[in-house]
Write a sequence for this structure.
């Protein structure tokens, strides 16, 4: 807890602060969700939405790891498709779909990785703070949730 804010006519509001341990725990989670392919689909989307929680080079490294893992999965999928030439297509549709999804994911990942490598996609704490300040409006003291 960081502080308790009291406003007349409103319940006390507790304001929490991020601790160093909490910040590191979030980074560990974020690295895992970005790099690993075994998690649930929404986990990766959630991690991408807060990619700025890592330094750009760290984020790129996690995405490169993920791309490597997906590349291996794509090789396995290609092997399944080419290893069964007599099998009717009806029984290969799942692998065809899997190949299409993996190919699309890899294409997107490689584009983001390239943008991170070249600096077309980047951020830093100062830029994030400036962006926050530009979009953050203080509530008036008498508004619900205001100070």
């Amino acid at each position: 807890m960081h502080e308790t804010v009291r406003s007349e006519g409103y319940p006390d509001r507790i304001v929490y602060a991020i601790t160093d341990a909490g910040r590191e725990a979030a980074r560990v989670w974020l690295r895992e969700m970005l790099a690993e392919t075994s998690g649930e689909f929404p986990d990766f989307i959630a991690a991408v939405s807060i990619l700025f929680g890592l330094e750009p080079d760290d984020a790129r490294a996690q995405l490169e790891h993920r791309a490597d893992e997906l590349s291996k999965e794509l090789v396995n999928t290609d092997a399944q498709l080419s290893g069964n030439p007599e099998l009717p297509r009806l029984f290969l549709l799942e692998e065809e779909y899997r190949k299409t999804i993996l190919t699309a994911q890899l294409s997107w990942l490689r584009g983001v990785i390239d943008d991170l490598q070249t600096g077309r996609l980047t951020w830093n704490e100062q830029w994030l703070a400036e962006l926050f300040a530009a979009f953050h409006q203080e509530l008036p003291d008498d508004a619900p949730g205001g100070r």
